[in-house]
Amino acid sequence: MEAPAAERTAAWGVAVQKTSLIDYPGRVSAVLFLAGCNFRCPYCHNPDLVLPPFPEDLSTAGDALAFLDTRRRVLSGVVLSGGEPLLREDLPLLARELRDRGFKVKLDTNGSFPDRIEGVGADFVALDLKTTPDRYDRVAPGVPDAGERVLESLRVVRSLGVPYELRITCAPGIAETGEIRSLAELLEPEDSVVLQGFRPLRVLDPLWETLPATPERLLEDYAGLLRTRAARVRVRSST
User: Fold this and answer.
1) The CATH classification of domain 14-236, taken from the options 3.40.50.2300, 3.40.50.720, 3.20.20.70, 3.40.1010.10
2) Domains of the chain: which residue ranges?
3) Are 30 and 19 in contact (CB under 8 A)?
4) Integer Cα distance of 187 and 180 in angstroms
5) Rounded to whole angstroms, how far apart are CA atoms 132 and 181?
6) If you write DSSP's letter for every residue of the chain in order, what string do you get?
7) DSSP bridge partners of 82
8) Which class for 16: exposed (0-12), middle (13-18), buried (19 or more C-beta within 10 A)?
9) Could you report the per-residue pLDDT of 13-41, keeping only the tens digit for each?
């Protein structure tokens, strides 16, 4: 007899955000941040979840599910984020547990596992476009074919028949004017795109904490470039 997902994923480290009004469009959600990532984005705002040793106070998947059982009257969605949640081949098991509890499931992914996206059965997918496909060495030095994987993930996400959004963090030297112009060429009219600026908070590379935040006016300029290809482009305010 197959063991419940909560048992087989007991060793997973999970940070739980109990309530979010912005991470799952149109839903009050909880966010499960799964520890571990194969990317090394210097501006990552979850540095404790990138490399082990991970914080000792992380929950297990079972603990997270038990908490969510107490929140069914408040929450209608759960976001699987990270880190990179698709590092876990058995993520579909956790997604199934969530759906069985009546939650809609949103997947946040960096796009490095295109072959694992469909199996999660997510009701909504957010795919990060970090930079142009040929420059992914700046954020994923340990994943030589990261750019090609992301392009394949983009194809997969568009084919799923569920709502999706493409997310671009406008980080200095990684996603600036030249990269935004190139990324615009990848867009299709039906794509929904969210732009967000870099913020010098606690990040993976401490040197980045000294860099200036992306000006709002620059984000609006970038949004204008992207709207030449996709009509649904919005800027997520940093305030």
Assistant:
1) 3.20.20.70
2) 14-236
3) yes
4) 11
5) 9
6) -PPPHHHHTTT--EEEEEEESSSSTTS-EEEEEES--S---TT-S-GGGTSSSPPTTPBPHHHHHHHHHTTTTT-SEEEEEES-GGGSTTHHHHHHHHHHTT-EEEEEE-SS-HHHHHHH--SEEEEE--S-GGGGGGT-TT-TTHHHHHHHHHHHHHHS-S-EEEEEEE-TTTSSHHHHHHHHTT--TT-EEEEEE---SS-SSGGGGGSPPPPHHHHHHHHHHHTTT-SEEEEEP--
7) 34
8) middle
9) 999 999 999 999 999 999 999 999 999 99
Classify each residue of 213-235 as buried b or exposed e, where b means 16 or more C-beta atoms within 10 Å of its C-beta.
ebeeeebeebbeebeebbeebeb
Q: Residue-wise over 27-65: b if at least 16 C-beta within 10 A, else e?
A: bebbbbbbbbbbbbbbbbebbbbbeeebeeebbbbbebb
Placement of tokens 């998947």 in the chain: 61
Nearest to 98 by CA among 69, 127, 59, 63: 69
Structure tokens at 178: 């030249």
Phi and psi at residue 185, to the nearest 5°: -65, -20
Residue identified by tokens 């967000």 is 196
Residue-wise pLDDT tens digits, 124-164: 999 999 999 999 999 999 999 999 999 999 999 999 999 99
Residue tagged 């750019």 (tokens): 147
